[in-house]
Design a protein that fits this description.
This protein is mostly helical. Helices cover 51% and strands 2% of the residues. It is built from seven helices and two strands, in the order ββααααααα. Strands 1-2 form a two-stranded antiparallel ribbon. The longest helix has 19 residues. 39% of the residues are buried. InterPro entries: TPR-like_helical_dom_sf, TPR_rpt.
Length: 169
Amino acid sequence: RAPPSGTPAGPTPVSSSSVTPSRILRLRADRASPPVLFACGIWGPGEARGREWCHAGTRCRDSSHSIATVFCKCSPEDLATAYNNRGQIKYFRVDFDEAMDDYTSAIEVQPDFEVPYYNRGLILYRLGYFDDALEDFKKVLGLNPGFQDATLSLKQTLLDKEEKQRRNY
């Protein structure tokens, strides 16, 4: 998906362990370290895309391993946090499709974790998919009404959507 011309850069995604430029948002920081990512099968030795790596760091020889088997030592909360954090790395690399895949995986693992909805919404906003971004920001606020960044992003998305409609593009 190519972003429409003139699409604003938008805010920065939120990591479970990052410090954002103008605010500090720490969520589940105890679970955000690389050992958790490795233990959850998200990262394998020497490989950033390690779904085929078991939690022990050995390559899975059995092709019938399901994701549930590979990730059996992780809690859903740890796995969702790991996917979200890997998605943020991909976002900063401007690999939006891959980042959205990770945010969606985090949502599938833990549907009540608001941060990946917010981060996915930011990408959708940047790409000009305002209706989809609005859905994600509304979901965030349904899960956490006090999430101020989501409130601001929702308002900005509504304004930009109206502007896009006004200009007929």
